[in-house]
Write a sequence for this structure.
């Protein structure tokens, strides 16, 4: 499916987790307006109508500075403003244990703070629309409830939350799971583990990375079968190496190597974001789940937008 056909199939793609694209890392403080525009133009060429630009774990000072920087670029460029329709903040309120934190740095992680969120939301001009967090941190339920009151979506990810923690998060307003099946320790208890706990919760919409690497196709198929109708979404979770040649790229302060297999790996060998392009994500979703192309495309466009209350640009 090329970009033109992707758009013609029922509106452009909405990807709610994009860390970078076409060699451009959105986390880097050296990010220029020209680099951001080139990256967004490349995404649009791949059939994308809109994204939540995603920033991952960092200090509050650095996150606030980056939101301020990107907001300045958006204010000066209508194409950026139209395409970057909000932000996904993935951290720093995640589980710092090895495995669960994934490629995120552990040092800035901690319990959620409404004062810190207010500072970041002000820097983002009120445009943080989605926050991924680990609800096992003390105070998470009250934090989630306040964000829900403000109209900000929350999602469980990079977490080893107990069943009680998950109950409290759902009761407080959480509705999503971030890249379910990833951001977890490699060794898990056979039955009582975070994947099974989250997968079983029909209240939660599960978000998956369908690149065939983060989840093998047979696992993706099983996970999708476990969810009720209307409770699945897809994202690339792509980083700077997506839409770019293999080589060395960055994800914030982390250097990431992408080889001929097109897998982004951190120095320890684990995945560090994906190199999936959104239009290819639509193709793989249709292939792995035996869906008609227009059905797969709707999951990446109209249904994804509806889940977050987003009106896509015409």
């Amino acid at each position: 499916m090329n970009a033109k056909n992707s758009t013609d199939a029922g509106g452009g793609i909405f990807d709610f987790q994009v860390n970078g694209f076409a060699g451009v890392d959105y986390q880097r403080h050296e990010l220029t307006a020209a680099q951001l525009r080139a990256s967004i133009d490349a995404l649009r060429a791949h059939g994308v109508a809109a994204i939540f630009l995603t920033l991952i774990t960092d200090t509050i000072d650095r996150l606030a500075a980056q939101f301020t920087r990107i907001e300045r670029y958006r204010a000066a460029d209508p194409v950026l403003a139209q395409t970057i329709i909000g932000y996904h903040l993935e951290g720093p309120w995640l589980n710092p244990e090895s495995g669960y934190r994934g490629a995120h740095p552990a040092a800035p992680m901690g319990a959620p703070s409404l004062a810190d969120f207010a500072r970041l939301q002000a820097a983002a001009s009120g445009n943080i629309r989605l926050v991924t967090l680990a609800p096992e941190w003390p105070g998470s339920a009250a934090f989630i409830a306040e964000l829900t009151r403000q109209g900000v979506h929350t999602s469980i990810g990079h977490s080893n939350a107990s069943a009680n923690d998950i109950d409290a998060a759902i009761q407080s307003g959480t509705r999503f799971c971030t890249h379910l099946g990833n951001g977890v320790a490699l060794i898990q208890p056979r039955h009582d583990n975070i994947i099974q706990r989250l997968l079983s919760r029909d209240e939660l919409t599960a978000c998956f990375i369908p690149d065939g690497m983060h989840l093998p196709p047979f696992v993706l198929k099983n996970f999708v079968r476990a969810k009720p109708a209307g409770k699945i979404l897809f994202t690339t979770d792509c980083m700077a190496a997506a839409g770019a040649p293999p080589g060395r790229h960055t994800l914030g302060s982390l250097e990431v190597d992408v080889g001929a297999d097109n897998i982004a790996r951190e120095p320890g060998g684990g995945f560090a974001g994906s190199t999936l392009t959104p239009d290819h994500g639509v193709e793989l979703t249709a292939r792995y789940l035996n869906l008609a192309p227009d059905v797969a495309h709707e999951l990446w466009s109209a249904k994804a937008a509806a889940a977050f209350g987003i009106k896509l640009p015409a």
Notes: Residues 285 and 296 are 6 Å apart (CA to CA). The radius of gyration is 18 Å. The longest helix spans residues 60-76. Confidence is low (pLDDT under 50) at residues 1-10.
